Amino acid sequence: MRRMDLIIALLCCVALCFGAIAASPSPTKLGLDQLKQSESAKNVPAENQSAKEAVMTQLPQNNLTLLKQDSGTNLSVMNLTFTTSPTLGSAQAVKFTAPKAGWKLKLVIAVATDGWNASRNELPNALPFAIEIRDANLGLLYHFADIQYPYFTTEMGFRSAVIEMPSIPVEGDFYVCFYGYRSIGLATELQNATGNSYLFDKITGSLYPGVLTLENNQTLPVNWLIRAVGE
Fold first, then answer.
1. Alpha-carbon distance 90 to 68, whole Å?
2. Please, which residues have CB within 8 angstroms of residue 77's CB and are 6 or more apart in sequence?
3. Which range of residues forms the domain containing residue 189?
4. Cβ atoms within 10 A of the Cβ of 106, count?
5. Residue 64's closest CA among 32, 100, 95?
6. Which of 162, 192, 222, 221 lies closest to 40, judged by CA?
């Protein structure tokens, strides 16, 4: 299967398995290290555009590579829940490795929810979220921020959002960090942990294992559902 077909298959699988989850709206590019509210952020939920249409619109290239650090199991059979980071200053982070020299990150795919669905009469409050790209030493390469409406507010309750990056060059290991600010829940795989999901404390610059705390202070290693696409 060609790489492009792989990416199309991923999001089509999400749409089929979870009831036509909408893909992200027209992407907005931001400058490096620039915090800016996207013009796409409107007080309306995301439209239920078909996954394949969205992918064809946003992924015209033919040589893209999909990176994932979850189990790789079909999303329809994953044991999933939605979790938030433990503090406002922490992020759910996934470590990836660039597959070759000169590789550039083009897109981030995140499955998340703001808790709203079609059964609610009123839209949720606007909630901020952010995505950061950090190098192997946790140095900041790029910061994206917006509100959740065009990305994660959908009548289906949760959504796989495709967020465009400005062709960020990465070498070796790098991290994609998702800040839901304790309001936006990120899809979390409860089995088959790969050891590449972390909690990142922005205040101290420290990484901690990506785990959930259970009863009796036991912990469960998990996978955050964040994926990276580039060429």
1. 21
2. none
3. 3-230
4. 19
5. 100
6. 162
Token pair 């070498």: residue: 171
pTM > 0.85: no
Q: Which tens digits make up the pLDDT trace of 152-191?
A: 888 777 888 999 999 999 999 999 999 999 999 999 999 9
The total of structural domains in the chain comes to 1
Phi, psi of 219 (to 5 degrees): -125, 155
Q: How far apart are CA 27 and CA 33, in angstroms?
A: 17
Q: Find the helix or strand (DSSP H, E) in which 57 lies.
A: helix 51-58
Handedness of CA 230, 97, 178, 191 (dihedral sign): positive
DSSP codes, 106-166: EEEEEEEE-S--TT-SSPPPP-EEEEEEEETT--EEEEEEEESHHHH--TTS-EEEEEEEE
What is the identity of the amino acid at 216? N
